[in-house]
Amino acid sequence: MLNNEQIKKALQEQGMSIGLVAKAIGVTTPTVSATIARKGTSKKCAKAICLAINKPIEDVFSDQPKYFKDDKSEFKQQALQRIANGF
User: Fold this and answer.
1) C or N terminus of the chain, fewer CB within 10 Å?
2) Cα 69–Cα 46–Cα 26 angle in degrees, nearest 5
3) What total number of domains does the chain contain?
4) Domain that holds residue 69
5) Contacts 24+ apart (CB under 8 A), 60-69
6) CATH code of the domain covering residue 28
7) pTM for the model
């Protein structure tokens, strides 16, 4: 599990921000922030955060099994697509 600060740092390392993730998926910055802080429960935000930092949802949000239940194959498909597209 990554905590709030670790997720923010991982976003920064990828050249991303909470605001960029929010804009990309059409939600507000506070919605993404709440998901990161575990004060909100948006699966859409959780997935977007994980894609932005290139980590599986079950690693980042291991304390939120509702986010990743039955989604391992989806993450693998997304990873394969990124590989096929040259990242």
Assistant:
1) C
2) 130
3) 1
4) 4-84
5) 60/1, 60/2, 60/7, 61/1, 61/2, 62/1, 63/1, 63/38, 64/38, 66/41, 67/43
6) 1.10.260
7) 0.76
